[in-house]
Amino acid sequence: MNPFTYARAADTAEALRLGAGSAAAYLGGGTNLVDLMRETVANPDTLVDVTGLSDGIEETDGGGLLIGAAVRNTALAEHRAVRTRYPMLSRAIVAGASAQIRNMATVGGNLLQRTRCTYFYDTEGSRCNKRTPGTGCDAIDGVNRIHAILGASPACVATHPSDMCVALAALDATVHVEGGNGKRAVAFGDFHRLPGDHPEIDTVLAPGELITAIELPPLPFAATSTYRKVRDRASYAFALISVAAALEVEGGVVTDVRLAIGGVAHKPWRAARAEAALRGGPATEAAFRSAAAAEFADARPLRDNAFKAELATRTLVAVLGDLAGVAA
Q1: DSSP conformation letters of 312-328
Q2: Using CA atoms, how far apart are residues 262 and 246, in angstroms rounded to an integer?
Q3: Contact 89, 168 (CB under 8 A)
């Protein structure tokens, strides 16, 4: 681990001033950042502690929720309004890690998690364009069972590791950020980037910008929502596939739906094609399977992960069937 300077910010203005350097990083719970520093993947020269800032959960005037970036994952998962109005989010957080990590991890930090690709962490023996741009991607021809089947590029096939972010993508959340040029709001679907030619750039955050809050819109039918995670073991494992889904059915017809999938792409994958195929159609197993087929029509599996499209299809069909009360 390289030497660094530590400073605790008293407010957002001080955090932005301290974090203005090109090699500075904001420290929340540190559950990913500290690991990256230990492995010398991340080498900030300044850590700005922002754990005391924006740690509340408030109702918005429109009936949604404004969640401070420093809110701990456990507090968010246990919040009454989240559990009753956005149960997919609560379930995604609980599925995401051990209780000890959830007690430490912050909402803002969760958005900024970096991939758990083993080649990304192997600083001594592997080529990785995300870690060192221009060196190549050993995962493409290597052990790639956990890697992307959607939205990847010749430069990177890594997947985004967060469970919480999959639910936030489905819920059409908004990310509030602040930086040297003032405040701005970013639609959650636009916050994370696909790899393209620059997989080292994970998000649209400008240097020195700080996440201050996440806003959930009012979405009444999100009360009928859930999150399902398929993984290699029952406790503390990253998703092979995950599905966040909210469904509204009237008279056997899908009137509205929100879907996002984890474990398949460089960012939480909003299943827009599947949503479009489902709206206005019958809430049947055949319709659910057809929608999933539309979503994965462009899947490009690697040698070891061709199973993911079928696994995701089965998981999506099962989740939608449960929400609709349709027997598989």
Answers
A1: HHHHHHHHHHHHHT---
A2: 15
A3: yes
